[in-house]
Amino acid sequence: MTHTQAPTALTLDIALGEPRQISRVDLHTLDTERYPASSVGLRDWDVQARVDGQWRTVAQVRGNTAGMARSDFAPVTADAVRVSALASNGANDYTRIIEIEVRP
Question: What pTM was computed for the model?
Answer without folding.
Answer: 0.90
